[in-house]
Automatic annotation (TrEMBL):
GO molecular function: transferase activity
InterPro entries given in the database record: Glyco_trans_2-like, Nucleotide-diphossugar_trans, TPR-like_helical_dom_sf, TPR_2, TPR_rpt
Pfam family, one: TPR_8
Protein name: Glycosyl transferase
Taxonomic path: Bacteria, Bacillati, Bacillota, Clostridia, Eubacteriales
Repeat as UniProt keyword: yes
Keywords: Repeat, TPR repeat, Transferase
Superkingdom, natural source: Bacteria
SMART domains according to UniProt: TPR (SM00028)
Organism: Desulfosporosinus orientis (strain ATCC 19365 / DSM 765 / NCIMB 8382 / VKM B-1628 / Singapore I) (Desulfotomaculum orientis)
Domain Glycosyltransferase 2-like: 6-128
CDD domains attached to this UniProt entry: Beta4Glucosyltransferase (cd02511)
TPR repeats: from-to residues: 582-615
């Protein structure tokens, strides 16, 4: 006679998830037992549609008691328990039926795939959970939260044998950010575990779960203390111990206890030498400490690890795209752009949706300076054959200020599906940047006053006419914007268009907040991109110096991005006068080096080194500078003393040192 399976569930207000769960087991489960703890939506109706035995249980804050109520009603030989936000994977249906034929097994640990993150950008983390066991009256759950039954079975049956259910997979959607926010799981779980710990203060498993919930609630120092306490005197063979070690490392890292986190990771790796996550997080900590060589070794170790066992609950990408991304970051710290590009490409190949790596590729390729080369390089390695991919590339190029490239990709989006209003607005902006004013205005005039984008579209119409020196149109649109009741910062920025058109000199009294500065810097970037340098400087000189204090480096970078390094110099010099930093000195040194002003470059590289002695890029630039400077001096000497033997010998040494190795 064939063994029968009872699906046992507890639910409350699960109308969005329950049908998906029940569909996944339809046809292979002999009965469905659902205990409802107080639903006010259509959950119970959905349960009835699938033929469930429905039992109402007043919620008392104890998950085990609710689960045990479902077990009391179960008639099958085996119990499978799922939550409503879970489902059985399609490939697991036949496997489940084969597993219950094994007469020597009392229960199974099952692989669960947790989906984490936001809808549209989701990552997966595997784990092992005990979800399938024989139905016996003495087997009942224990614990108000994170309820357990595997230990209870062993207590009642010392000869009970468990197995890992190979290839049986449960998919869990409940850790998606939206779901957590809707249910307020973090707060609920903390409250329940705290009550349970009052009754069982020495329970290691409860302490572990409490530490994890504290970590998720971003109470890192508390999580660290609780997790370390839960790890004392615990058997390293305990199934959750690898995860416990990882959470200790994460909590210590997030608490700022970096050396302690490194020590904990080292202890964990002695016990679990193939644990990729511990190598990866060691790499992160070493990267934060600017110990780049050690960090590189740790990330390479993480990437070389074999497939991780489910009980490690290994975080997605630690053996692939995440490790490669940080290897690219380390290569950049040594100014090795070729190696950085290689690792960012590895990262993208491992996960084409990991846009951080794509952003870094675009930045290194300098799309504002070399747009055609950037486009050719990326199209060789990336597939942009879908509207979504074209939208992504358009957005990235737009953020980097490569407006011509962005427009090409936005145009291709239209071929795939109707264009949203925000893409239309960005297309119009790109057209203005390409001086296609008539086409841009046609798009911008389509935005109605009721549209959320109308104020920004109107600002861009004003900019369009302002660039064309049409002051009457500028004043008319300024009045229209003024009538909308704009924020004071926005009003101040918009008034500068009018002041320039009417050739008045605004006194440098404007003090802008963060939003006002963001708008102003966006306008300045666009003007610099269009080579409207005089207009860009007009906007910048109209501000009170206090508004610019935190933005000098950003402004300098804008000019540098569009080959206007000379214009960047005063802003970097002012930044150094007001708040000297390694970044300001390094940027100014880079410009001086390009201009062959070697002495000034050396001084600024050395100042950068003083502010940040742990950064290898300063040493590398100084070495390169001295090598180049030596060649310049040697050439001067040879030109003046062409027959001097010493200079000839030095020239040969330099020439041979510059030859590529075999």
């Amino acid at each position: 006679m064939a063994e029968k399976i009872s699906l046992c569930m507890i639910v409350k207000n699960e109308e969005l998830s329950l049908a998906r769960c029940l569909r996944s087991v339809s046809g292979i489960i002999d009965e469905i037992i659902i205990v409802d703890t107080g639903s006010t939506d259509s959950t119970c109706d959905i349960a009835r549609q699938y033929g469930a035995v429905l039992h109402h249980f007043p919620w008392n804050g104890n998950f085990s008691e609710a689960r045990n109520a479902s077990l009391e009603l179960a008639q099958g030989d085996w119990i499978l328990f799922l939550d409503a936000d879970e489902e059985l994977s399609p490939n697991s249906r036949d496997i489940l039926l084969r597993l219950i034929e094994n007469e020597t097994v009392e229960g199974y640990f099952v692989k669960i795939i947790n989906y984490l993150g936001k809808e549209g950008w989701v990552e997966t983390v595997p784990d092992l959970v005990f979800r399938l066991f024989r139905n016996k009256k003495e087997y009942r759950f224990r614990g108000a939260i994170h309820e357990q039954i595997a230990d209870v079975i062993l207590e009642n049956n010392i000869s009970a044998r468990y197995q890992v259910a190979e290839n049986l997979v449960i998919i869990h959607h409940g850790y998606l950010d939206q779901v957590i926010q809707e249910k307020d799981k973090k707060y609920r779980n903390l409250m329940l575990i705290e009550k349970e710990l009052e009754l069982n203060p020495t329970n290691h498993l409860l302490q572990y779960h409490y530490g994890v919930e504290l970590y998720r609630a971003e109470r890192y120092a508390e999580a660290e203390a609780v997790l370390i306490k839960s790890a004392s005197d615990i058997d390293p063979n305990t199934i959750y111990f690898p995860k416990l070690i990882r959470y200790i490392v994460l909590s210590q890292h997030s608490s700022g206890h970096l050396q302690e986190a490194l020590n904990s990771a080292a202890v964990g790796l002695k016990l679990f030498p193939n644990y990729a996550d511990l190598y990866f997080y060691s790499g992160l900590i070493l990267f934060d400490l600017k110990k780049y060589t050690q960090a590189r070794d740790a990330f390479l170790q993480a990437a070389s690890m074999p497939e991780q066992p489910p009980q490690y609950a290994s975080f997605g990408g630690v053996r692939g795209f995440r490790a490669y991304y940080y290897l690219g970051q380390i290569a950049e710290s040594y100014l090795d752009e070729e190696e950085a590009l290689k690792f960012y490409l590895y990262s993208l190949r491992d996960n084409p949706h990991f846009t951080h790596a794509l952003e870094q590729l675009v930045r290194i390729l300098k799309p504002t300076k070399e747009p055609l080369y950037t486009k050719e390089c990326l199209e060789k390695v990336c597939d942009f054959c879908t509207p979504a991919a074209n939208r992504l590339m358009g957005d990235i190029y737009f953020r980097h200020g490569a407006y011509g490239l962005a427009l090409q990709y936005f145009d291709q989006v239209e071929e795939g599906f109707p264009v949203s209003s925000d893409i239309k607005l960005r297309k119009a902006i790109c057209m203005i940047q390409e001086r296609r004013f008539f086409e841009a205005l046609r798009i911008l005039e389509d935005f109605s006053p009721e549209s959320p984008e109308y104020p920004l579209a109107t600002v861009n119409r004003l900019l369009c006419f302002w660039i064309q020196d049409r002051p009457q149109k500028v004043r008319s649109l300024w009045k229209e914007l003024h009538a909308l009741g704009l924020a004071q910062d926005t009003e101040n920025v918009i008034s500068l268009f009018l002041a320039f058109s009417e050739k008045t000199s605004p006194s440098p009294q404007f003090v802008l907040g963060a939003e006002g500065m963001q708008l102003l810097l966006d306008i300045v970037q666009r003007l610099v991109a269009m080579k409207e340098i005089k207009r860009a400087l007009f906007f910048l000189h109209a501000l009170n110096l206090n508004s610019l204090t935190d933005y000098y480096l950003n402004i300098a970078q804008i000019f540098m991005n569009y080959n206007e390094e000379i214009q960047a110099i005063p802003f970097l010099q002012t930044a150094i006068e007001m708040a000297p930093s390694a970044a300001a000195h390094f940027q100014l040194a880079e410009i001086c080096s390009q201009l062959n002003r070697h002495f000034e470059a050396e001084q600024h590289y050395r100042h950068a080194l003083q502010f940040d002695p742990d950064s290898p890029r300063h040493y590398i630039r100084l070495i390169n500078l001295y090598t180049e400077w030596r060649q310049v001096i040697l050439n001067e000497a040879l030109a003046k003393f062409p027959q001097n033997d010493l200079f000839k010998i030095l020239a040969k040494e330099v020439s041979s040192s510059n030859e590529p190795a075999d």
